[in-house]
């Protein structure tokens, strides 16, 4: 089902240090007839007033790898592409010290719980809907004329204000149980609480044994990210409480 994306009137508070880079990406996208958006964690953090975001995620309606090549050439960055997934990583030097992950907008479907998803081309709305929590399902337009416009179809701004973690659909934790661990990290990092229906879905997923469906590599990566959080012990206590019900 295709969802209409609505734009919020308030601009995103973009840190001055990154604004020229984002504007340059937007102009390059415009020149190629593409629409580019900053998405996910960087938009969330800027909405929270966190300026020191070094890694940027860019979603493109159209050929993301084509835009990534243009950006890497223009800014003399190094480029790594993953054609099968429609993604690319640009590493910028010359004092920027930034990494830009570029991906074509996509939709995902899961053949079974915890499986790697089947990916196909999608709209921005579909790309946002596949994400873990509403606070990570926001985008910011980069093209000239719309630059800085927040796109928030699932009310992530509201949940940031309410300090709430909310999944986008009831099957979210079953599709990808690693979202349970990411939720623990976000809850402790930002001092957020689980929205009641999300907390219920988390408990049901845990009772179903969902974390055991993850392959060891994915589980290890998520636990390693957890211990790198500012308060790793609090994360582990939170996870323990979640497992104990």
General description of the model:
It is built from ten helices and twelve strands. It has helices at residues 19-31, 41-47, 64-75, 124-129, 156-162, 172-175, 178-190, 196-207, 216-227, 232-244; strands spanning 7-11, 35-39, 55-61, 78-82, 87-92, 98-104, 106-109, 118-121, 139-141, 149-151, 164-165, 193-194. An eight-stranded mixed β-sheet has the order 1-10-9-2-3-6-5-4. The chain has a two-stranded antiparallel sheet with strand order 7-8. A two-stranded parallel sheet has the order 11-12. It is globular, with a radius of gyration of 18 Å. The two termini are 34 Å apart. The mean pLDDT is 90.
How much beta, percentage-wise? 15-25%
The separation of the N and C termini measures 34 Å
Structural class computed from helices and strand pairing:
alpha+beta
Q: Residue ranges: pLDDT <50 for 5 or more in a row?
A: none
- What oligomeric state do these chains adopt? single chain
| Morphology | globular
Largest sheet: 8 strands, mixed
Count of DSSP H/I helices: 10
Q: What brief labels describe this structure?
A:
alpha+beta, two-stranded antiparallel sheet, 10 helices
Quick synopsis:
The protein has 245 residues and is an alpha+beta fold. The protein has helices spanning 19-31, 41-47, 64-75, 124-129, 156-162, 172-175, 178-190, 196-207, 216-227, 232-244; strands at residues 7-11, 35-39, 55-61, 78-82, 87-92, 98-104, 106-109, 118-121, 139-141, 149-151, 164-165, 193-194.
Helices, strands, pairings?
Blueprint: E1 7-11, H1 19-31, E2 35-39, H2 41-47, E3 55-61, H3 64-75, E4 78-82, E5 87-92, E6 98-104, E7 106-109, E8 118-121, H4 124-129, E9 139-141, E10 149-151, H5 156-162, E11 164-165, H6 172-175, H7 178-190, E12 193-194, H8 196-207, H9 216-227, H10 232-244
Helix pairs in contact: 7-9, 7-10
